Amino acid sequence: MSISNQSNIIHKLAAVLGNILVFLFPKKASELSKNRITLIHKNKNNLNIPERLMRFALVNKLDKIQDYDKIAEMNRNFWVNKEATELFSDTEDKFENDFLPNCSFVFDLLKKELLNESEEFDTLVEIGTGNGEVLNYLSAEFPQINRFVGIDLSSDQIEINKERFSNNKRVEFVTADASDWVNQHGSSNTIFVSSDGVLEYFLEQQLQEFLNQVYRLGKTFFVAIEPNGVDHNFETNPNSQLYGKEPSFSHNYPKLFKNAGFNLWHFSQKTGFKGGTQTFVGAKY
After folding, report:
1. What span, in angstroms and rounded, lies between the C-alpha atoms of 136 and 192?
2. Which of 1, 115, 190, 226 could be bridged to 123 by S-S, CB 3.0 to 4.6 A?
3. Any idea where the Methyltransferase domain is (predicted)?
4. Percentage of the chain with pLDDT > 70?
5. Residues 137, 169: Cα–Cα separation, whole Å
6. Position 85 in a domain
7. Please, which residues have CB within 8 angstroms of residue 20's CB and are 6 or more apart in sequence?
8. Would you state the pLDDT for residue 245?
9. The dihedral of CA 88, 93, 95, 99: what is its sign?
């Protein structure tokens, strides 16, 4: 029997067992599926085997959503909700296990790019800072930068971050919409960062307008680490498409950055990353 056939049998068996457990324990099933995004991204290490089987069955039964505006509204409503803090807590180990080994290389490349700049960049802004781990790390990696700002929609998580990183006087955390913050506080000589999936929650037109907005600030850098659907070929389908079961949006990031006027100093992808493709873009004014 091939590995593929064995995998299919295992998945079918897991679905059957999961559905049986969902039927037998409806209260637990309701707790697991109280929110679509939490259900999908719940850390498996925090679940016992029956709960994992139930989660697998529940995820497979999620209804498909095709209304782009509804998807964007649903995702935004989750990230401003207090439940987002549970997900950020669940993913703290991702910094050590995923970000450092798989994503930190792009910031080594950024260091080399900055050496070629005659102007100094005094501010780094992380859009969608989450639990603040990445911003705290970057403040140590870039000692020449004076100010590090972490923006997130979750006011609860921002308060957690303020307390957790209170000893790091170079970082600050702000509850804000990214576009509103750029309108009110954005300036040139700033580095913008998104990490582990943030821009994927923007509608394509919203993301294009946001990148246009950042570009108009003047001298800026942007590092985006974002997921794409494994089947999203930018050449055959240059536009955004749905990705995953949340769902979110798989954007053609090189195209959108170039449309805004940015020059790309880096573009790469890692396929098979968490079941999809991880895209790395380095752009500058």
Report:
1. 15
2. 190
3. 125-217
4. 93
5. 13
6. no
7. none
8. 85
9. negative
Tracing tokens 């573009």 back to the chain, one arrives at 267
Beta strands at 276-284 and 220-228: parallel, antiparallel or unpaired? antiparallel
Whether this model's pTM surpasses 0.70: yes
Shared domain for 50 and 158, answered yes or no, is no
Query: In 3-state terms, the chain is what percent helix, strand and coil (to 5)?
Result: 50, 20, 30
Residue 158: CATH number of its domain: 3.40.50.150
Q: Which residues pair with 224 in a beta bridge?
A: 194, 281
Please check whether residue 228 is in contact with residue 243, taking contact to mean a CB–CB distance below 8 angstroms: yes
Q: Write the CA distances from 203 to 151, 193, 206, 232, integer angstroms.
A: 19, 18, 5, 16
Give tens-digit pLDDT for 171-198: 999 999 999 999 999 999 999 999 989 9
Q: How many CA atoms lie within 13 A of 182 on its CB side?
A: 24
Task: Report which secondary-structure segment, H or E, holds 174.
Answer: strand 171-175
pLDDT tens for each residue of 210-250 = 999 999 999 999 999 999 999 999 999 999 999 888 899 99
Q: In terms of pLDDT, which residue wins out, 195 or 31?
A: 195
DSSP 220-255: EEEEEEEEE-TT--TTT--S-EEETTTTEEE--HHH
Question: Any residues with CB less than 8 A from the CB of 34 and at least 6 apart, and which?
Answer: 83
Structural domain containing residue 140: 93-284
User: What is the torsional sign of CA 257, 250, 103, 96?
Assistant: positive
Helix/strand/coil (H, E, C) string of 110-150?
A: HHHHHHCCCCCCCEEEEECCCCCHHHHHHHHHCCCCCEEEE
